């Protein structure tokens, strides 16, 4: 007659150790997969936000119109201005401002782009010729911005692009401003604008816009 034999303490401990090891491996694998999925989702969201921001900038610039404005200080401001010495990195008047409610306003709009606290901001004004109490509506387009630069080409004939699709910037200007020594002076829009965004972890994104003849 066979006697029944149970597990020894050592066998139970070994079984528990094996079970614990398998559980740790499974958890580690699952955690890695979850982390990878979260990382992919984060990058996909950032890519979507980048594409949206570039689309907004492109739409605005392509609707540039040669309409000067009067700022809140009563100073006449060019249709487009920008650069490190300007009030905003890029500011200009655009057309195509949709009026779905039929409000008594112009279809033109003044918009401006600049970086504040590493965020790319788009500011839009409710009127072209502003009063002292006029406040812009600000929208954050993109986060983690390391650098935002704009360059201006005075003459399209000076546009040079090498075979490596590198732009010859010898004829480009960092600032586009009227001569401040001439009261009330304005400057005509440039022939082309280059927008450069440097994004944390992604590097540079460049866009070149040849402006319509105005």
Short précis:
The protein has one helix and ten strands; from the N terminus they run αββββββββββ. It is an alpha+beta fold and 214 residues long. It has one domain: Roll (Pili subunits), CATH 3.10.610.10.
- Determine the structural class based on helices, strands and strand pairing: alpha+beta
**Number of separate helices:** 1
CATH superfamily: GSPII I/J protein-like
Which strand order do you get reading across the main beta sheet? 3-4-5-6-7
What is the makeup of the main sheet? Answer: 5 strands, antiparallel
CATH fold field value:
Pili subunits
* Strand-residue proportion: 25-35%
Oligomeric state of the chains present here: single chain
Global geometry: elongated
Supply the number of structural domains: 1
Intertermini distance: 107 Å
Layout of strands and helices, then pairs:
Layout: H1 9-62, E1 69-70, E2 76-77, E3 80-82, E4 90-94, E5 109-116, E6 119-124, E7 137-142, E8 145-153, E9 192-199, E10 203-210
Antiparallel strand pairs: 1-2, 3-4, 4-5, 5-6, 6-7, 8-9, 9-10
Keywords:
single chain; 214 residues; alpha+beta; Pili subunits; 5-stranded antiparallel sheet; 1 helix; elongated
Structure description:
By secondary structure, the chain is an alpha+beta fold. It has one domain (53-210): Roll (Pili subunits), CATH 3.10.610.10. 25% of the residues lie in helices and 27% in strands. It has 1 helix and 10 strands, in the order H-E-E-E-E-E-E-E-E-E-E. The chain has one helix at 9-62, and strands at 69-70, 76-77, 80-82, 90-94, 109-116, 119-124, 137-142, 145-153, 192-199, 203-210. The strands form 3 sheets. The chain has a 5-stranded antiparallel β-sheet with strand order 3-4-5-6-7, with helices on one face. Strand 5 (109-116) and strand 6 (119-124) form a beta hairpin. The longest helix is centred in the first third of the chain and has 54 residues, at 9-62. It starts with 8 loop residues before the first helix and ends with a strand. The mean pLDDT is 84.
């Amino acid at each position: 007659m066979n006697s029944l034999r149970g597990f020894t303490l050592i066998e139970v401990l070994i079984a528990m150790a094996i079970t614990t090891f398998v559980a740790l491996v499974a958890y580690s694998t699952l955690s890695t997969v979850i982390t990878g999925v979260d990382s992919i989702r984060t990058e996909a969201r950032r890519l979507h936000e980048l594409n949206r921001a570039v689309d907004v900038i492109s739409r605005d610039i392509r609707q540039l119109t040669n309409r000067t404005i009067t700022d809140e200080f009563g100073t006449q401001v060019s249709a487009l201005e920008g650069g490190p010495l300007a009030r905003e990195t890029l500011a200009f008047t655009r057309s195509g401002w949709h009026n779905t409610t039929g409000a008594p306003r112009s279809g033109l709009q003044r918009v401006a782009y600049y970086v504040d606290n590493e965020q790319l901001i788009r500011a839009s004004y409710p009127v072209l010729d502003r009063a002292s109490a006029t406040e812009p509506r600000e929208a954050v387009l993109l986060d983690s911005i390391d650098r935002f630069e704009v360059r201006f080409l005075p003459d399209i004939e000076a546009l040079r692009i090498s075979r490596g699709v590198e732009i010859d910037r010898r004829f480009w200007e960092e600032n586009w401003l009227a001569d401040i020594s001439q009261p009330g002076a304005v400057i005509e829009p440039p022939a082309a604008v280059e927008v450069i965004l440097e994004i944390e972890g992604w590097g540079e994104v460049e866009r070149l816009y040849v402006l319509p003849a105005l």
